[in-house]
Amino acid sequence: MVPKTHEQWMALDFKRLFSGRSAFINMDSQNSILDPQGCLTHEGIWRGARDEGGSLSNTLELAAVCRKAGMPFVWLRYDRFIGEKEPANEMDRVQYGFWNKDYKGDRARKDWECDLVPEVKAILQEDDRNLVYPGWSIFTGTGLDRWLKQWGVETLLVSGYHTDWCVEMATRHARELGYMPVVIGDACGTTQPLHGQTLEQLNNCYAPVMTTEAAIGHIQAGLRAGRTQSTLTAA
């Protein structure tokens, strides 16, 4: 259940925000989470994700409309095994060692865990950024902030996994960096009740939360008005 966009955000002109200087940001649409054989299969986030109205289905629907608007695309993937292989400190070594102590996969299997699911690979385009982030925030160690500034991006359409971890961290960090993130709640996923609780927290404190349908409506309104990322960037 996606909470209604909080009244504090209703004075925003979402059609304008989504029509230019905006980017599609998705994190962790990867095998570890969305494949039944992934290492996080026990969380069950993959169940229903591909169904109509499911998180991955909504992500793909949103992506198709964002393409028409000419937005830049960034697909981010979290590699939980980097911290195991190259721990930054003693806390990393202990935590990642605990997480992965029973994992039997070799390096190739670990790389598969971090890879994008086939449905996303099928829509990748040459200019998309496909980045691996090694820590908790998508802005740390990726160069993402540099890319967004180079593109002149102000608004981020945020989707992905896990709502209570990487999505929340990305949204809060984006605000600190001066961006305007908007969380597409039904294109995100995690376990319950954390999914709903985190969307409420984000909506109340850090960024608007809305449905895929609502976001698409704002983007399409901008397209009907002849406003696209490319036209506004050039303006």
Keywords:
235 residues; disordered C terminus; alpha/beta; 6-stranded parallel sheet
End-to-end separation: 38 Å
Overall domain count: 1
CATH class: Alpha Beta
Multimerization status: single chain
List low-confidence stretches: 231-235
How much of the sequence is in beta strands?
15-25%
Note down, in words, how this protein is organized.
The chain is α/β, with parallel strands linked by helices and 235 residues long. It has a single domain (7-81, 115-234), classed as Rossmann fold (3-Layer(aba) Sandwich). The protein is 44% helix and 15% strand. The protein contains twelve helices and six strands. It has helices at residues 14-19, 31-34, 55-68, 82-85, 90-100, 107-114, 118-121, 144-151, 163-176, 194-205, 212-224, 229-234; strands spanning 22-27, 73-78, 129-133, 155-161, 180-189, 209-210. The protein has a six-stranded parallel beta sheet with strand order 3-2-1-4-5-6, with helices on both faces. Helix 3 packs parallel to helix 11 (212-224) and helix 9 (163-176) packs parallel to helix 10 (194-205). Mean pLDDT is 94; it is low at 231-235.
